[in-house]
Design goal:
The complex is a heterodimer. Chain A is of the alpha/beta class. Chain A has 2 domains: about 170 residues, 3-Layer(aba) Sandwich (Rossmann fold); about 80 residues, Alpha-Beta Plaits (2-Layer Sandwich), CATH 3.30.70. Chain A has 11 helices and 14 strands. In chain A, the strands form 3 sheets. A 6-stranded mixed β-sheet of chain A has the order 6-7-8-3-9-10, with helices on both faces. In chain A, strands 2-1-4-5 form a 4-stranded antiparallel β-sheet. Chain A has a 4-stranded antiparallel β-sheet with strand order 12-13-11-14, with helices on one face. The two termini of chain A are about 30 Å apart. By secondary structure, chain B is mainly alpha-helical. Chain B has one domain. Chain B is built from 9 helices and no strands. In chain B, helix 2 runs antiparallel to helix 3 and helix 3 packs parallel to helix 6. Chains A and B meet through helix 1, strand 6 and helix 3 of A and helix 1, helix 4 and helix 9 of B. The structure holds adenosine-5'-triphosphate and magnesium ion. Magnesium ion (MG) binds next to helix 1 of chain A. Adenosine-5'-triphosphate sits at the interface of chains A and B.
């Protein structure tokens, strides 16, 4: 549905070194997929999304939407994609939610009569009904962001690009936003490409994540796949009592990537094992030093840790 | 048909914002009227008794009307473009599938009509204040006004485009408004080459209709043709430059920067 090949964007500024915002990004998004775009600040997420919208002209590379190159033919893309860029902008602050929705529907050439029903429905779904008469600038940030999303839906395109949809939202609003996006995919069959710094959002919504750093794709895998990858190797050993000093040294020496801590009077070892056999090696050391093991946990790494590891280049 | 809905939608939005903030319109009206009063009182003190007093006064009223129309047309276009870039709505408008060109053209059309809301009361006030009731022949004035304003919109587009690329240009915005006074007052009868400037010939012809009680049918066809070419030229060059700056902004990634 969307395919990007070798996208680069170089910013040249007088008197400053040139910035390679995108350095050969290739990716593809299939119909009905929800794909997350992750990366630290300045990685190139916004630039990628704006290139897809035709708002930024890339230096080189191809963007194909349903097989048509939208770098050469931007107008084609406009009919296929709608986008919400960075949160609560995108809407008219002096208009009410209802007027905003009606305006953006009118911009699509939808007649007034058809528009009315559609707008009512969206106000209802987005729970903006009781605020329909107050100007957007008086709404809470969460509501503004919901409204921005609703306004992009009136375009009725299949592909939805969201740049940081939960930026600046509190826990509850963020949750609500996630539920809304989920239902858009489930009920309306939208294809969603979203960038976020919020790992919960990505974990909760996306089937697949693309992680970029310094304008390059460093990982493109399913969320499940990434979790699996890190899950097999992470263990926590809860011991009974202290860990003898010799044992501590030996473990430190043989298992570089480990953290020895304590849990009250009991020692605790967090370790990452490169292969399954290493598990027995560790148990062997503990046995030799007569350390009783209370329990062993398969520590579930959370997505944030996985992300950090990938970005820092550990694997 | 879809285009017509687009036009109506854009008009409605500007109308709603205007209606919601009548104070903006009102304060603008009052400020301009006060400027006019100063000019009028000053002129009456100096020029009273001169045989051409009445005619010159009429000229001032028409010139002032042209200036009012020009600055409101110019500022709604360029200022709004800049404001929308800042609010992030420009990016949404840019992504309109019906085409951003249409969005721009329709904005000009709706701004023309809405600016009449500003110009007509000023004109009425000026006529009441001076007691000079001008010859208002809509059939002659409308096409002349439209053509004169086309050049002004061209300038508005250029400034709006520049503002997208060079963000610190706002201070320059006001200066342009005073250049309009100069253009409106250019003595075309003394130097025909001045007809090449935007706004100059148009306001001269409107003077002829409103002050000298002429009609569009009595004006020189040659002048009308020059006006037509002049307006089309400034409008399209302005629009073309705007689109050029828009492209530069998209290259530099500046379309939604604030
Ligand atoms: N208009 C511009 N001119 C020059 N450099 C730019 C411009 N826009 C972005 N950049 C640079 O390009 C790089 C990528 O920026 P981008 O906004 O895409 O990052 P991002 O991943 O969205 O970051 P964030 O998480 O902070 O939103 C950054 O180094 C940024 O400084
Ligand atoms: Mg960003």
């Amino acid at each position: 549905m969307v395919s990007v090949e070798g996208l680069t964007k170089v910013y040249k500024q007088k008197g400053k070194p040139e910035v390679k915002a995108l350095n050969g990004i290739s990716l593809s998004i299939e119909k009905g997929e929800v794909v997350g775009l992750l990366g630290p600040n300045g990685a190139g997420k916004t630039t990628t999304i704006k290139c897809l919208c035709g708002l930024i002209i890339p230096t080189s590379g191809k963007i194909l939407i349903d097989g048509v190159d939208t770098v050469k033919n931007p107008q084609w893309g406009m009919g296929k994609i709608s986008a919400v860029l960075e949160g609560n902008r995108n809407i008219y602050w002096r208009l009410t939610p209802k007027e905003n929705l009606s305006f953006f529907a009118g911009m699509m050439g939808i007649s007034r009569r058809k528009r009315r029903e559609y707008v009512e429905e969206l106000l209802h779904i987005f729970q903006l009904k009781d605020k329909e008469k107050s100007q957007a600038r008086y709404l809470s940030r969460g509501m503004q962001q919901k409204l921005a999303l609703a306004c992009s839906l009136v375009k009725g395109t299949e592909i939805l690009l969201l740049d940081e949809p939960t930026l600046g939202l509190d826990v509850e609003s963020s949750y609500e936003m996630r539920q809304l996006i989920k239902s858009l995919v489930a009920d309306a069959g939208k294809t969603v490409f979203l960038s976020s710094h919020d790992m919960k959002v990505v974990e909760d919504l996306c089937q697949r994540v693309i992680i970029i750093n310094n304008g390059k794709v460093i990982t493109d895998d399913t969320v499940k796949g990434l979790q699996q990858l890190f899950k097999v190797s992470s263990y926590r050993f809860n011991l009974e009592g202290e860990l003898p000093v010799q044992a501590r040294y030996q473990i430190k020496r043989e298992f570089g990537l480990c953290k020895i801590g304590r849990d009250g009077a009991n020692a605790r070892i967090d370790v990452e094992l490169k292969s399954a056999e290493r598990f027995y090696d560790l148990v062997e050391i503990l046995k030799r030093h007569c350390c009783p093991v209370r329990s062993i946990d398969h520590k579930e790494p959370d997505f944030e840790e996985i992300f950090l590891k990938i970005v820092r280049g550990k694997k | 048909m879809k285009k017509l809905i687009l036009l109506k939608t854009m008009f409605m939005r500007e109308w709603l914002e205007l209606k919601r903030y009548p104070f903006n319109l009102l304060s603008g009206l009052i400020a301009l009227y006060l400027i006019f009063l100063v000019v009028f009182v000053g002129y009456r003190a100096l020029g009273a008794g001169s045989p051409k007093f009445g005619n010159t006064l009429d000229g001032i009223v028409v010139g002032f009307m042209m200036w009012t129309f020009s600055i409101s047309a110019y500022s709604t276009l360029s200022w709004e473009l800049m404001n929308e870039a800042r609010m992030g709505t420009l990016e949404q408008l840019y992504m309109t599938p019906l085409g951003f060109d249409w969005v721009c053209i329709f904005r000009v059309i709706s701004s023309f009509f809405l600016n009449l809301l500003f110009v007509l009361p000023i004109l009425a006030l000026m006529m009441i204040t001076t007691g000079r009731y001008l010859h208002i022949d809509f059939l002659s004035i409308t096409p002349l006004l439209t053509l004169s304003l086309a050049g002004v919109y061209g300038i508005g587009f250029v400034m709006g485009g520049l503002a997208l690329v060079f963000k610190q240009i706002q201070a320059f915005f006001q200066i342009i408004q005073f250049i309009f006074i100069f253009l409106i007052a250019l003595p075309i009868s003394k130097q025909p080459l001045f007809k090449a400037f935007p706004l100059a010939l148009g306001s001269n012809l409107i003077q002829k209709v409103m002050v000298d009680k002429s009609s569009i049918l009595l004006l020189s066809p040659e002048d009308l043709l020059i006006l037509l070419v002049n307006s089309a030229f400034y409008f399209w060059v302005g629009f073309w430059l705007f689109k050029h700056f828009l492209r530069v902004a998209r290259k530099k990634g500046l379309l939604g920067h604030y």
